[in-house]
Design brief:
The chain has 268 residues and is of the alpha/beta class. The protein contains 11 helices and 9 strands. β1, α4 and β2 form a beta-alpha-beta unit. It comes from Planotetraspora mira.
């Protein structure tokens, strides 16, 4: 099975169709997705090099993270396989955007202060492709710079369907149970996502190491709050309490298997 792109480096039609719906940008700006967005901001703002760092946002979509990174004063270049995303991101102040493939970055060695892969590993279903994308990120990052990758937890699809009351449907249950067993989600509209790879927390570290990025650290984004507490996000006071607990527990191994996770390595 091919990963996110064919050998001609085109996004698989099923995945392209999903992203052409334009839902991803809105997902992170409203509802439950805000927690993932805010937590990603929190972790990155603590770890990224000082402004103005040159940041390569690979698989950056329509620029939902590139936008605030540029507003913070970083020099942001976004690479994404969806032309519509690139067109949208190109209109953001301070953001340069172009079409590209995470596995074949057209960048000089050591030219970036940080490379973000906040989406590509979701859709590279073959391990070799995920390692190749991480190795490319390492290659273009300067010594001392950061490689950051986001992954989705292995049981996330099952948890989501139970939370939404859809798990009792045979087709839905079959698809998400298979994703929990193998890591590969054969997604469609019934599960609200497309073809994806869902990681075990420990497996991410071995992929980083095989890409020449040993000693990576992991950060739970939503943690257990991926399962509940959406109403807290609308109340500034309670939201601050929730985000504080999420930060204090972000490195707890027991909480890495929920929602999304960031894995971060410093290039030697």
């Amino acid at each position: 099975m091919l990963g996110v792109m064919t050998e001609s480096r085109q996004l698989a039609p099923k995945i392209m169709d999903y992203y052409l719906q334009g839902k991803e940008d809105g997902r992170l700006r409203s509802g439950r997705g805000r927690l993932e967005f805010w937590r990603t901001q929190d972790v990155l703002r603590r770890l990224l090099p000082a402004v103005p760092a040159r940041i390569l946002d690979v698989g950056g979509g329509s620029g939902v993270h590139a936008e605030w990174l540029a507003a913070d004063g970083h020099r942001v270049e976004l690479v994404d396989p969806v032309p519509a995303h690139v067109e949208q991101a190109s209109g953001l102040p301070g953001v340069i955007a172009r079409v590209g493939d995470a596995r074949h970055l057209d960048e000089p060695d050591g030219s970036a202060d940080a490379v973000l892969l906040l989406g590509p590993l979701y859709h590279l279903t073959e391990r070799a492709d995920r390692v190749r994308a991480l190795a490319q990120a390492r290659r273009v990052t300067r010594p001392g710079g950061l490689v950051v990758a986001a992954t989705i937890a292995r049981w996330a699809a099952v948890h989501d369907m139970i939370r939404l009351g859809r798990y009792a449907e045979e087709h839905v249950r079959s698809a998400v149970d298979e994703s929990a067993r193998t890591g590969t989600l054969d997604g469609d509209a019934s599960v609200g996502f497309t073809t994806a790879y869902l990681h075990d927390p420990g497996e991410v570290l071995t992929e980083f190491a095989d890409a020449g990025l040993p000693g990576a650290e992991r950060y739970a984004l939503e943690g257990v709050f991926a399962l509940y507490a959406e109403e807290w996000l609308d109340d500034p006071g309670r939201r601050a309490l929730l985000l504080d607990v999420a930060r204090r527990t972000e490195n707890e191994p027991e909480l890495l298997g929920f929602g999304h996770m960031l894995t971060v390595a410093r290039v030697s």
